[in-house]
Amino acid sequence: MEVCTLEKRGNLFILTLTGEDEHRLNPTRIDGIRSALNRIRSDSTSHTGSVLITTAQGNFFSNGYDLAWAGSSPEKIRLMSSKLRELVADLISFPMPTIAAVTGHACAAGFILALSHDYVVMRKDRGFLYMSEMDIGLKIPAWFFAVISSKIGDAMVRREVLMEAKKLTAKEAVKRGILHEAYDSAEETVKGAVELGEKLVKRRWDGEVYSENRKGLYKEILEKLGADETTDDLKNVAIASSKL
After folding, report:
1. 1 to each of 43, 53, 119, how far by Cα in Å?
2. Cα(28)–Cα(91) distance, rounded to whole angstroms?
3. Per its UniProt entry, what is the enzyme's top EC class, as one word (predicted)?
4. Window from 133-142, 176-185, 222-231, 234-243 with minimum mean pLDDT
């Protein structure tokens, strides 16, 4: 099953999560995304002056972990968490600027995936950003906190996102400094991401230097990616799965 497509437009690489589903993050989807990233890395033209844009078809950017797939299986839960942490590490070490063009809902782990990009843009007409863990009784892992803390500078906004499970529209997220920009529709969001990408391409930054500097900036995230202590909390995962 195809989970994503990869298009190259000059020095822009556009990775699109495919299908009209919720793009939940299970090992198959994550492996597909990582495979696309590896293809970009192997492109000899990608190491200077290139940009990655990640977007999605349908009403969801990603609705988070595929808890229905994992159920209460310890092995599946740990595998799913491990795969996503590897994907986030890939993005933090990726040798070019990255842009998430959020064209629908980005929830829980899907929100974390979007924030793992350097820039996040989003449509205004529908969709929201939402950390659902408080509402479904699921403990938030330390590495999620590290991503949120590194990407959202305002402590009051972090409280809204994590402790109040506030559903943020694109307009609200721009005001809170979470988004780089918001656009009127999905099409305009992708167009805006492309325009931003083209501006970044013109900077002709060295990809390896960009990667090393980003890894230094987000050292705290990388340090937390080695383990996810919540994957042993099977009761909470089962409860969360039952509320989908």
Report:
1. 24, 22, 29
2. 18
3. isomerase
4. 234-243
| Domain carrying residue 187 | 4-242
The predicted-structure confidence for 14-56, as pLDDT tens digits, reads as follows 999 999 899 999 999 999 999 999 999 998 777 899 999 999 9
CATH number at residue 69: 3.90.226.10
Whether residue 6 contacts residue 14, with contact meaning beta carbons closer than 8 Å, is answered with yes
DSSP string, 26-62: -HHHHHHHHHHHHHHHH-TTTTBS-EEEEEESTTEEE
Side by side, which strands form the sheet with 181-183?
Answer: 4-9, 12-17, 51-56, 98-102, 119-123, 181-183
**Total domains present in the chain:** 1
DSSP secondary structure of 100-134: EEE-SEEETHHHHHHHTSSEEEEESSS--EE--HH
